Amino acid sequence: MGDEDRAQEVELREYKHTQARAILPPPTRPSAKWCAGAGCGERILDARRNAVPGVQFCAECQKFNERYLKGWIKK
Questions:
Q1: pTM score of the predicted model
Q2: Range list of H helices, the chain
Q3: What are the φ/ψ torsions at residue 70 (nearest 5 degrees)?
Q4: Is 7 exposed, middle or buried (0-12, 13-18, 19+ CB in 10 A)?
Q5: Under a CB-based contact definition with an 8 Å cutoff, are residues 3 and 10 in contact?
Q6: How many helices (H) and strands (E) are present in the chain, helices listed first?
Q7: Integer CA distances (angstroms), 40 to 48, 54, 57, in order
Q8: How far apart are CA 70 and CA 61, in angstroms?
Q9: 3-class DSSP state for residue 34?
Q10: Model pLDDT for residues 14-70, shown as the tens digit of each residue
């Protein structure tokens, strides 16, 4: 294997690592067991907590927050 091949492998490995972090950045805090949505307090399903590290909202509150931030709905 030549130097060029090794350089391409390193570049590909770094690219994949960067893409993975962009898609799912590391959590800044542990996943909550209970939703932090205003007035919600529902338990966050374990499947969601495992799929989304650092999750703080139940699926319904997360959907509401995303729509609100995009301006699709008003409070």
A1: 0.59
A2: 3-23, 46-51, 59-69
A3: -80, -10
A4: exposed
A5: no
A6: 3, 0
A7: 16, 18, 9
A8: 14
A9: strand
A10: 998 888 767 766 777 899 999 999 899 999 999 999 988 899 999 999 999 999 888
